[in-house]
């Protein structure tokens, strides 16, 4: 086993940005205005998703939370979605096989834009396409950026915002907007999870290390395997393996490293995800990109499972070092952190997840942001009053 060195581990600290935001939530006044809200989800997966689909899971929580707060909500999503809101669909089922094609995405988004005048605000989760189409209606759009803003994606958002005077964007973390501070941000609203679906375990430790994610280099499955080898612990890997790029990466980089206690168990549903988290010693999340959020870390936290992750993207805002897990930049550092997971209290992990990532907090944040863009749009629509000279 890897010898533990204090120098491999960062000092204990908590995510101050998230703490400040949640303290503001506790003290805020509840708005009683009943809004007419259209929520535009991507067409690729059902809401909520059966397996893969972090954006769709968050959209589901937002929609049902708004309904519980007595807002008039219409969800624009695939016809196989399940929701407490009214459902409008361009397609009978999710268009997963057409992921990335413009035609179905455009047809789906225009279904919402066509009816947009019926609403006070549109909560758009489709990316730059939905933002560009917001120019076709006077109803304000609030566009949540769920993906990266690095490289061409950031350039696309900048170009769309240049031709969209009313653009208003939501980031998921402060790090998410760090490389695009010039964009018209309306708020930072972290994602939430259904805490009832992620019960906390009552014990520490587990029989194996666990990796969960999309099968690609930026999610770090190979690094996770190296951590498992360094500690001598078995590892289970689970997650999305679809499309030629993911299949090719798996066959070339991951599959040859399986065996000897390392096993890929496939793409799993919510029930199986929670079961495997409860049996894990730790979640290993060695991402190699600046991920905007990372729901899997919050899911592990809610289940009382330590998270060991690299210091990229949102990780320093989500993982509280020494309290909900450890942040380490190297395989040796992560292996050392595995040895110290017994110090992490599952009850504190759960408490922090409930405080920072509840659906109630997320919904309240969105309602505040909705009112902000509605008020801004109202001011912009006011006619300029000219006073005659005395």
Would you give an account of this structure?
The protein is an alpha/beta fold and 390 residues long. The protein has 2 domains: 32-192 and 358-379, 3-Layer(aba) Sandwich (Rossmann fold), CATH 3.40.50; 195-353, Glycogen Phosphorylase B (Rossmann fold). Helix content is 38%, strand content 14%. It has 14 helices and 13 strands. It has helices spanning 16-27, 54-68, 102-114, 128-133, 151-162, 174-177, 221-231, 243-254, 270-278, 295-302, 315-318, 331-339, 346-356, 359-381; strands at 36-40, 72-76, 86-88, 121-124, 141-144, 169-171, 185-188, 208-214, 235-240, 262-264, 280-285, 307-309, 325-327. The strands form 2 sheets. It has a 7-stranded parallel sheet with strand order 3-2-1-4-5-6-7, sandwiched between helices. Strands 10-9-8-11-12-13 form a 6-stranded parallel sheet, sandwiched between helices. Strand 9 (235-240), helix 8 and strand 10 (262-264) form a beta-alpha-beta unit. Helix 2 packs across helix 14, helix 7 (221-231) packs across helix 12 (331-339) and helix 10 packs across helix 13 (346-356). The longest helix is centred in the C-terminal third of the chain and has 23 residues, at 359-381. The chain is globular and about 70 Å long. Residues 1-14 have low confidence and may be disordered.
